[in-house]
Design goal:
Blueprint: H1 2-17, H2 22-26, E1 49-54, E2 57-58, E3 62-64, E4 70-71, H3 73-85, E5 88-93, H4 96-104, E6 110-111, H5 119-124, E7 126-127, E8 132-133, E9 136-141, E10 157-161, H6 165-172, E11 178-182, H7 185-193, E12 199-203, H8 204-213, E13 219-223, E14 233-234, E15 237-238, H9 243-259, H10 261-270
Helix pairs in contact: 1-8, 3-9, 3-10
Length: 289
């Protein structure tokens, strides 16, 4: 974990400035070089290789080391699924929206990068069974408010990531909140600590990871999705018509769940997680420092 946090300021700086870098955009779809990657597949050379789309800028799910190698919870997860089901993977760095488009057009075989279940995604794409708990949360500066759930953010300026499930939630709240969407999670976090927004809504693992990299900013994180909420589930995204791949990935997820592999991956990157409580209300939350 120390290695991850040491790399975080560099990674977040890339997220902050990378959008206007033409060289980054030109190379966005190039396969990531694995010149220092310690992972070695146990599969034979004849095993098929799937093209995997990732953002590569969303720790702890997917991000790059100094050599451009992908790493993170989702990198380990899809590799484990592949090893279990007999396919290798090759990673391609895409923007958030391009990641979805590349799968839909067949340019990539699948996408995995902190993708949460959403009803509209289930209609348009082929989604796997859940493999990771990824609840939406509210972050705010300590001492500024006393927020327990979504009802408490009415009248506030709320930041989030463009295209996220949290953005959908804020849009549904209408004029009761002032929505400010950003293309990267760090820009939204920066808005919060600089006072441009009052709250920042996004996925709990990402917010926890950011906070540990910037301990000088004291914040509160309040989850508002329980373990039984469909939108709190993380999934692999594939083309709707690729039924065989969907079946293969789901079989791998089921096997690895039984082995406890995903819990091992989560513990390796995030530490031991507290068990989540089931809830039928978005106001029944747990506050984390």
């Amino acid at each position: 974990m120390k290695q991850l946090y040491r790399a975080l300021p560099i990674l977040l700086s890339v997220g902050l400035f990378g959008c206007g870098n033409s060289a980054t955009q030109e190379n966005a779809s190039a396969p990531v070089k694995e010149n220092t990657d310690s992972f070695v597949s146990k599969l034979p050379d004849t095993a098929p290789t799937l093209k995997v789309a990732m953002t590569g800028d969303l720790p702890p799910f997917s991000f790059q080391d100094d050599y451009g190698n992908m790493q993170g919870t989702d990198v380990d997860s899809i590799r484990a699924i592949g090893e279990e089901q007999g396919f290798k993977v090759e990673f391609y760095k895409e923007t958030w929206q391009d990641m979805f488009d590349s799968v839909e057009t067949g340019k990539r075989d699948l996408a995995i990068s902190g993708i949460s279940y959403k009803d509209d995604r289930a209609v348009r794409y082929g989604l796997s069974t859940p493999y990771f708990f990824n609840p939406a949360t509210i972050m705010y500066l300590e001492g500024k408010f006393d927020i327990k759930g979504l009802n408490d953010i009415k009248g506030l300026k709320a930041g989030t990531l463009e295209g996220s499930k949290e953005e959908d939630t804020l849009k549904e709240m209408g004029s009761s909140v002032e929505l400010i969407s950003r293309p990267t999670a760090f820009l939204a976090y920066q808005d919060l600590v600089q006072g441009n927004t009052d709250v920042f809504l996004y996925d709990m693992p990402v917010l926890q990871y950011i906070v540990k990299g910037y301990p000088e900013h004291k914040v509160k994180i309040v989850p508002y999705e329980a373990a039984d909420a469909p939108s709190a589930q993380q999934v692999v995204l594939m083309a709707k018509e690729n039924t065989q791949l969907i079946k293969t990935v789901n079989e791998g997820i089921a096997k690895l769940k039984e082995k406890g592999t995903f819990k091992e991956i989560e513990a390796r990157w995030l530490g031991e997680a507290d068990p989540a409580e089931e809830s039928d209300s978005d106001t029944n939350t747990k506050q984390l420092n």
